[in-house]
Amino acid sequence: QQQVKQSPQSLIVQKGGISIINCAYENTAFDYFPWYQQFPGKGPALLIAIRPDVSEKKEGRFTISFNKSAKQFSLHIMDSQPGDSATYFCAAFSSGNTPLVFGKGTRLSVIA
Amino acid sequence: DADVTQTPRNRITKTGKRIMLECSQTKGHDRMYWYRQDPGLGLRLIYYSFDVKDINKGEISDGYSVSRQAQAKFSLSLESAIPNQTALYFCATSEPGHRQETQYFGPGTRLLVL
Question: Does residue B37 surpass a pLDDT of 60?
Answer without folding.
Answer: yes
